[in-house]
């Protein structure tokens, strides 16, 4: 074993932690700021999702965030903009601990997502593993033997069609986790401005029940979701979720900024009476 290989730092994979029964808590990173990513990682999140679907950045920004997150001892996941081979190749070659595909609506789409993550003959991922960051630029001699076990593949169900096809999505071999998308789901039900509507709740429960019944240890999927004002993190944990996203960096900053301004305005009134 070369000295370069022996010096590679290993971190327990997200998939391994889930298999060992851990519940994981994460954050969406939309700013794609390495500094914010690093602060979040040091704060104690189990993982951070670098959001290329809604975040204002691309691959170059993502790789700098991954470096910052990993340097702080945390794991990075990349959410790609859609279920395409081109985006999957770019994201995976960066060396991410997980990948999230949005708006997966049937088993065929989930199967495509998995195939984009695996090399032939198991999939269609392009083979550049000797020169990309995912294999430590070729220094990781055990890469090909371990890359499937080290990668968490997440598919989002965020439409009425996706819920209807939840069982075939969960049944796809290699699809590790279903991430519920409550806001898009409420929109698909015609209830964009009423995410707490009983119809949205009922549809969510249908999908949750199917995922939880699939038993990950027997080839099923883990259940992930994002806490909202209508459905808090405590609510999700109580229903058996394995992974919860607490918030997004921009939401946390927005709240902190608004609270700071309000506190200052109150202090001015208290001191000046104006």
TrEMBL record:
GO cellular component terms, alphabetically, are: cytoplasm
Keywords on this record? Lyase, Metal-binding
A molecular function annotated in GO for this UniProt entry is: metal ion binding
- Where in the numbering of this chain does the HpcH/HpaI aldolase/citrate lyase domain appear? 25-254
Pfam families hit by this protein? HpcH_HpaI
Tell me the InterPro entries matching this sequence.
Aldolase/citrate-lyase_domain, HpcH-HpaI_aldolase, Pyrv/PenolPyrv_kinase-like_dom, Pyrv_kinase-like_dom_sf
Q: Does the keyword Metal-binding apply?
A: yes
Q: What is this protein called?
A: HpcH/HpaI aldolase/citrate lyase domain-containing protein
